[in-house]
Write a structure and sequence with these properties.
single chain; alpha/beta; Rossmann fold; 7-stranded parallel beta sheet; 16 helices
Length: 395
């Protein structure tokens, strides 16, 4: 029986949480496998008591740099005591001297994004620019420290190979409709009343925390133009964040985006819901008409698969990762063109035939992503590395 050690201490939001929530049940279902998972106590509460899964709950220092240093010192001992055969390091950073063969899961496109570095300089976010450069240095070195690196899309795997020269394979992240559609709890009355009040509006949705690379400002600039293209029909944009400094985690400042909402005169069109629990996302997405993402950097984008599974047409920025994930289930626009974004949304909003075609393609495409397949491929990769474990590694 193979024993995997998953370092999930970096999973705190977004795709990291989605990954752990879906992968742990799949590992538990494998008869010839057991796993030890290192994670935060907060995340542990969500996962129940899956069979053959041991949990190590630990609080690590806040901040990527401090967590990285902590892991380099303390994680090897945890792995040795667990008796694991292979380490899977989530969170973009690997152990420099892993006591067992190591698979690195790398999914942060910002370290390789020229657009992101330009954006930070434009915003005068020099501290974040430097921090990202430093993290990027260790992320790049991590690919060399790992025995193999896994990227969530072919597009990002190609980027990592070019950037590092290391061994990188692509394994798509998955989607589990049984988990995503399992909860039938209705939306909170405050959200449902807002949706009902705009019954005749074209409802757009963008699922994301506020951060710069999601390119909120391009989407906001498009809203008045979409209304104009639709002959004055009301437009509502639902956001799963709030453009308030004290409501937004991290160092991304929301003041410019909030000021833009006021300047454009669209406070009634931008519905800032704040974080929506994962089990309610299906209801919110299905209550909308079009999923829109203007992101200028991406590696996979789970909400796109969730939106396609809900039958929503997608309007997405023209990134290789978006085209790889959505294929012909989306229409695309240049990532910084709010005018063309507005044109594409209006085109989809005005054509029931186009909406139907995109929705049908999206439903079909969403079925091609499977967490079971993802875990099968990761396990096969781990099995291929097990012979390395026969030879002692330097401490």
């Amino acid at each position: 029986m193979m024993h995997l050690f998953l370092n999930c201490l970096a999973a705190s939001a977004g795709s990291g949480l989605t990954y752990v929530r879906n992968v742990v049940p799949q590992l538990s279902a494998r008869p010839a496998l057991r796993a030890t998972v290192a994670l935060s106590p907060q995340l542990r509460k969500e996962l129940g008591n899956p069979s053959k899964i041991s949990f190590i709950e630990t609080e690590v220092p806040a901040g990527a740099a401090k967590r990285f240093c902590w892991e380099q010192v303390f994680l090897p001992g945890m792995i040795r005591r667990s008796g694991a055969d292979v380490l899977i390091s989530a969170g973009n950073f690997a152990l420099r001297r892993s006591p067992v063969p190591q698979i690195l899961l790398s999914g942060n496109s910002l370290y390789t994004s020229d657009d992101f570095y330009r954006d930070l300089r434009r915003r005068r976010a020099y501290r974040m620019w430097l921090d990202t450069r430093v993290r990027g240095f260790f992320a790049r070195r991590s690919v060399g420290w790992a025995d193999c690196t896994v990227a969530p899309s072919k597009a990002f795997a190609d980027t990592l190979r070019s950037w590092t020269g290391g061994k990188v394979v692509s394994i798509h992240h998955g989607f589990d409709p049984e988990i995503f559609f399992n909860d039938h709890t209705p939306l909170p009355p405050s959200i449902q009343e807002t949706i009902d009040a705009g019954d005749n509006a074209l409802r757009l949705i963008f699922v994301s925390h506020y951060n710069y690379y999601r390119n909120f400002e391009t989407l906001l600039r498009a809203i008045p133009i979409i209304r104009e293209r639709l002959g004055g029909r009301d437009v509502q944009l639902f956001l799963t964040c709030k453009l308030l400094a004290d409501e937004n985690s991290g160092a991304h400042r929301t003041e410019a985006a909030a000021a833009m909402v006021k300047h454009l005169g669209i406070p009634n069109q931008v519905i800032e819901l704040g974080a929506v629990p994962y089990h309610l996302l299906q209801h919110l997405i299905r209550a909308c008409n079009i999923y829109v993402t203007p992101a200028y950097a991406e590696t996979f984008a789970h909400p796109l698969v969730e939106a396609m599974a809900c039958g929503l047409p997608v309007v997405a920025s023209d990134l290789p990762a978006h085209r790889e994930i959505c294929g012909n289930a989306a229409v695309y626009f240049p990532r910084f063109s709010h005018q063309l974004l507005a044109d594409k949304v209006a085109q989809v909003g005005q054509s029931s035939a186009l909406r139907t075609r995109l929705a049908e393609c999206g439903l079909k495409r969403s079925r091609e992503f499977s967490w079971r397949d993802h875990v099968d491929q990761v396990i096969a990769l781990a099995e291929s590395l097990r012979p390395i474990a026969k030879y002692p590694r330097a401490a």
